Amino acid sequence: xxxxxxPQIDSAAGKLGVLLPGLGAVSTTFIAGxxxxxxxxxxxxxxxxxxxxxxxxxxxxxxxxxxxxxxxxAGLDQLxxxxxxxxxxxxxxxxxxxxxxSPEHRETVRPLLESIAPMKAVFEQRYVQRINGPNVKQGxxxxxxxxxxxxxxxxxxxxxxxxxxxxxxxxxxxxxxxAGDVHSSLEKFEAGLEASDPDIAPSQIYAYAALKSGVPxxxxxxxxxxxxxxxxxxxxxxxLPIAGKDYKSGQTFMKTLLAPGLKARMLGLSxxxxxxxxxxxxxxxxxxxxxxxxxEDSKLSALDVIFQPKFYPELYKxxxxxxxxxxxxxxxxxxxxxxxxDIFGWMGYPMQIKVNFLCRDSILAAPLVLDLALFMDLANxxxxxxxxxxxxxxxxxxxxxxxxxxxxxxFIQLMxxxxxxxxxxxxxxxxxxxxxxxx
Amino acid sequence: xxxxxxPQIDSAAGKLGVLLPGLGAVSTTFIAGxxxxxxxxxxxxxxxxxxxxxxxxxxxxxxxxxxxxxxxxAGLDQLxxxxxxxxxxxxxxxxxxxxxxSPEHRETVRPLLESIAPMKAVFEQRYVQRINGPNVKQGxxxxxxxxxxxxxxxxxxxxxxxxxxxxxxxxxxxxxxxAGDVHSSLEKFEAGLEASDPDIAPSQIYAYAALKSGVPxxxxxxxxxxxxxxxxxxxxxxxLPIAGKDYKSGQTFMKTLLAPGLKARMLGLSxxxxxxxxxxxxxxxxxxxxxxxxxEDSKLSALDVIFQPKFYPELYKxxxxxxxxxxxxxxxxxxxxxxxxDIFGWMGYPMQIKVNFLCRDSILAAPLVLDLALFMDLANxxxxxxxxxxxxxxxxxxxxxxxxxxxxxxFIQLMxxxxxxxxxxxxxxxxxxxxxxxx
Amino acid sequence: xxxxxxPQIDSAAGKLGVLLPGLGAVSTTFIAGxxxxxxxxxxxxxxxxxxxxxxxxxxxxxxxxxxxxxxxxAGLDQLxxxxxxxxxxxxxxxxxxxxxxSPEHRETVRPLLESIAPMKAVFEQRYVQRINGPNVKQGxxxxxxxxxxxxxxxxxxxxxxxxxxxxxxxxxxxxxxxAGDVHSSLEKFEAGLEASDPDIAPSQIYAYAALKSGVPxxxxxxxxxxxxxxxxxxxxxxxLPIAGKDYKSGQTFMKTLLAPGLKARMLGLSxxxxxxxxxxxxxxxxxxxxxxxxxEDSKLSALDVIFQPKFYPELYKxxxxxxxxxxxxxxxxxxxxxxxxDIFGWMGYPMQIKVNFLCRDSILAAPLVLDLALFMDLANxxxxxxxxxxxxxxxxxxxxxxxxxxxxxxFIQLMxxxxxxxxxxxxxxxxxxxxxxxx
Amino acid sequence: xxxxxxPQIDSAAGKLGVLLPGLGAVSTTFIAGxxxxxxxxxxxxxxxxxxxxxxxxxxxxxxxxxxxxxxxxAGLDQLxxxxxxxxxxxxxxxxxxxxxxSPEHRETVRPLLESIAPMKAVFEQRYVQRINGPNVKQGxxxxxxxxxxxxxxxxxxxxxxxxxxxxxxxxxxxxxxxAGDVHSSLEKFEAGLEASDPDIAPSQIYAYAALKSGVPxxxxxxxxxxxxxxxxxxxxxxxLPIAGKDYKSGQTFMKTLLAPGLKARMLGLSxxxxxxxxxxxxxxxxxxxxxxxxxEDSKLSALDVIFQPKFYPELYKxxxxxxxxxxxxxxxxxxxxxxxxDIFGWMGYPMQIKVNFLCRDSILAAPLVLDLALFMDLANxxxxxxxxxxxxxxxxxxxxxxxxxxxxxxFIQLMxxxxxxxxxxxxxxxxxxxxxxxx
Lengths: 439, 439, 439, 439
Known about the structure:
The structure is a homotetramer.
Chain A: E1 15-21, H1 25-38, H2 48-51, H3 67-70, E2 79-85, H4 91-98, H5 103-108, H6 110-115, E3 119-120, H7 142-160, E4 162-169, H8 186-194, H9 202-212, E5 217-219, H10 229-237, E6 241-244, H11 251-264, E7 268-278, H12 281-286, H13 289-307, H14 313-316, E8 320-327, E9 336-344, E10 350-358, H15 361-381, E11 386-387, H16 410-424
Parallel strand pairs in A: 1-2, 1-4, 2-3, 4-5, 5-6, 6-11, 7-8
Antiparallel strand pairs in A: 7-9, 9-10
């Protein structure tokens, strides 16, 4: 199948630092959950890396190891956590404000949460307009801010005895931005840091600092960040994996289940309306049109790739697609999606599907942070650098090589991930052909 | 991948008779739609065989032929239709009563529909308790009924100049039944026909007649039919493909999109309630508990296979699953599904998904009839006999080889189907590994 | 308006015993809530008697006293609680099993809940088939059982220093029953008690004991109970108020909001499907068809009375109405209703309404218990005996005088209740005419 | 009850002209439906004036006449239709574009629809920004435009032999506007017409022209129009009834059913989110924020009045209320509302209600146009001038006398309307006390 050879994978031994820009609802829920799992108080629900099995060989061979036993992942006991935030709250206080955890859960992991105080953040008001906080770095230009982050990473590694780190973005959505001249090469980017170019967003400074420090970077927001030539050049140069962007956790997750199904059956689409109500800090940030635009762009992209209107003009050329997010404080972190899908079938007859998803934003996102931290570290140890397309499974807007379209269909993404894992270990690809059972 | 060689496929030339036991809502909608397509009045929406493309080679090769141009399928102009029903209505009258088609569509294809009158049906009240009709065969025993059907098939072929036929069951759901002694071998089955064994259901007599006549048989209802050793023995003997069972068209279609998605993300399931309201003849038949039991069994089976509770006890061992179908005449053929899904994520926090599917029963089923007719004929010409697992995509309760579990995940089913088509034509399997784009 | 004079109302001073047959989810939630209110920890949400105001005179007069300050109700501090149950659990243990209350709430009121142990119940398996318990009275016939209850009431009053009592049924739904010969007069009923007539249900023995003890009786279940000539005769004889039946708390509450609205606008109805999923003991009892029949009958009746098909045959003659309750354990006490309503408007065009009510059974019912206890006591002190039609507001199947139809429209019920309260205090009726503002 | 005497009502004989500013979806659906009713092809579904009965006296008297037989309304055969629009399409062409009517219905009433061509409209782009059309009056100032409308009315009456006219606004929503100085008196308003004051909106010019011509005016949009001192002064001066504003047809209709129900039960409200998707011209106009603001204001107002947060701060002080309308072309005139209601009950436990209303905008609005036309004419003949509060039933933002709050509760509105009709005919008010049945 592939011409590439099975890779050599370095040992997972030692401590793995998980560095989180943004210590809000998602990060604190992630840390609290890992701690609960380490105490044996909950299984790692929602984490494919921890709970999922992978089928090897034929269905009759009954070989289905856990993924975490099949590939050499860092164990949860090896993880240590750190991060940055514009508020001074430690993780316990931040969790209290986020209101995601039950009092019982929150108190159980209080010592660990209280021990994690945020490092001063790199922040620029114009990129996230609805919030502001006091815990912010000062510097004469953006280069100095980057260097301060690099120093933070080095200090963190030393203080915690880490062998390796990964960085997973858990901060806010920044305003919409297209790659500009300053993002076109590493050289221009570094000149831009010096000149405090306004087109360099805070998230890009974090990613730059990570990659300069030998730390893989995964992007959980729809921000541009590593989706630029400059930072991809740096990743290649330092042989580091990067991945993104925007956790696929709630409504888009559902959409990338349903859309491939409708497509599989060649059912036409006349319209898809996706409404959301959401009451947490994320909802507040996205109430600002410039920030919502970034999220909207990310949420809109999946359908076109899945439906391939150019191949199927009679079915998908003219569908109307609208995504809305409404700030609705009564729900707090409990997000609710309402989708209305107008389809048409045989002879053009119309039908409708409505999906009402009463979900929890951070509960869905937290295990993705865990998986990304562990798989990015694995990729790094396996010598896989640049864009990790096999982690598309986790993202609303998966990054892909320039010449190809990204894969949005969650089932193709899963297949891609599992066959990548099989390939890493020299196992045969699964194709589901299965004629052998009928010979 | 497979040790089997690329098969030789006979030409698709000549007329293909499509024989339909049951000329009700589904059959008449199917026939009307094919006629509309032949007249160029509608694209074949919902039909994978007609509209879908298949990717060949790498994403960068841009080879995506239509399936119907990739494998040698019979063309729609080659199809002729016939069938049996317990009512004497011709297809136009039956369509009028079914109320699926708009007056405009119905009148457009009136000449063809009026030309198709039902042959006398084999029927036994105890298998379908809520309906009865006058257009029924008499015979001294079930063997005579089978012979009458065999004669019908021969007469139909002769009268219509057919080169080949396929039979696709579009009749009612029979009462729940497990394979008994009479189904354990072809010999016992034939003795049972002679003795009019009460365990031989009408659908089995149709399937027997088809297979004796060299006609592939696909089973669109959850009835036992060809899911028995006796009839599988006959299929093997006569080298004929069989497939089943129960069209996966509405709610179960949606469930087999959602369940693999939840499973992919390792989200736990505490309960799944599936309600339906339905006002057509199908709803009326299923209002009888003995018939509903057959449908219920078929609808319940998918989740267990997808969720694999034995591998994932913490997530899927104890979920509560209930399926209800409520006869609700105001809707006619417009079926409505309402699913409530109780899931739990990270740290055990509960979430809910509700899906409300306002669908149309026959509109969803009709293109499946078309695809099954064409693919069964293709399999037959390719020398593929016995259970066609690659057509699992179309069924709620896919039949599979004895030693393996059936695949219910619609995306695995699609992969299986497409890789089977690739195999038929000697193309490389798709695994979605895709490392080559990053070298 | 009325020829009747403003009544004399006796003082509400002294202790009021609230006697509850059935100490399960509803009763324990009711008691816990009253205790929380008495401690000032929650307002009495859901209780019209405690929170609602009543407008008096013109809109410009601004007279809107609280109902509990307008009419002389017993105060919450005057209430003492007692009851019967077939299980031996005290109210704390019962609340724990019911799973309605949060741990925090439950522990706050633990002392009071633990102090209330159930008296031995009168129970007969055939009336409630899915449950059974050990805490049951024995007696040689039903008369002895009645006398034991009368003794219980006397003992309870003495032990708790009660001035007055009211009884509010909070037990299970019994199997469906129509009034028979034994219910046709008090004399026959008493003979039936002696003979242990199988047609005398346990709830009827409770009601008999209450009325014999001078205690008003309100019926929170759809059981026949006081909806019989025999017990109405006893109520009249002893000048006691009675009311019923079946708390209107969840789905039927919603239906009696929506139906009057559709009717007000003369929108036609072709079908109304009401599904429920419910996981508590109530759901378990109603999984038995004979018990469900009683509930179904109660739930079905409202629409016909509201829509008046005989006056509006073009709109309401032929609508299809179906009510289902599905036992679904994952939800526990959290009930969920899903209604689909098919309506038609101008020129007959169809439209649909779906209502998904994620409610909590006992949370909705508990404040109704409180209001009924207080208003029944008020009625008793005001000398209002027999059926209290003005309390129809609280019931799915309101009892009414023989010659008239019951009122199901919740807004007419509310008007009736408020004008009754105004009448009790000699205030002018409100008619909403309001021409005076425009003179 | 009222000190006012039963009014003298003039005869309804002669032709009644119904003048409609705006000949789009609502108007053409209204006219088509009236014509279908006149031909006996459909009952007048949705029209209270035509179909509803009114109870008189006691429930046992069985006096329930049809409203149209109880009060002297104009008959449908007496109606003639005219109107203005910015497009030149006659009503048949406009109905074709609106896409509300089935081809069958549309063709049945084609002659009447084709005979009604729009008079040239008064239009000002800045008030309705998303649409524009060629069929527009020119004039040197707004006074001339008003005079042209007055001339249109006179010409229409003469040409059609009308004895009386009513004007019912069926045009677009104008941008949000508060009453300014030019609206503060009739004198200033007339000076403003002369000066073409930019604060005088087109709808106000229509209303002015109507009232100058002796024609009652009802306002079906949320526009300011007659909700100003200037035009109310003119109505009083000419003794003409006025009413408004904004047809209560879809989502707000549902909200004013549900909100009074929640309030009646003293259930608390933490949030209410109302989303809409809508694909017709109305949706297009409201896609402009300035126009949406007018509609939003109208849609938001009902809840506060119904819930009375100042009386019930513990239940209703802090609820979050958001209304959104999303332009979604795939649905055309078929509007869909999705409401999420977060409530809390006993002890503060939260519950949720979701309402999904698949409605049809014009089908719901059309019968309101009919009722308003007939009742405004009735009021006029009964000498009832100024604001007709008894017609609040039909409006989202009912106009009311200055010193009182408007009534939004649809059941109080219905009571008010029916008791007003009873009063007009000297019948006793209904209070629902009903003690007489129990004496």
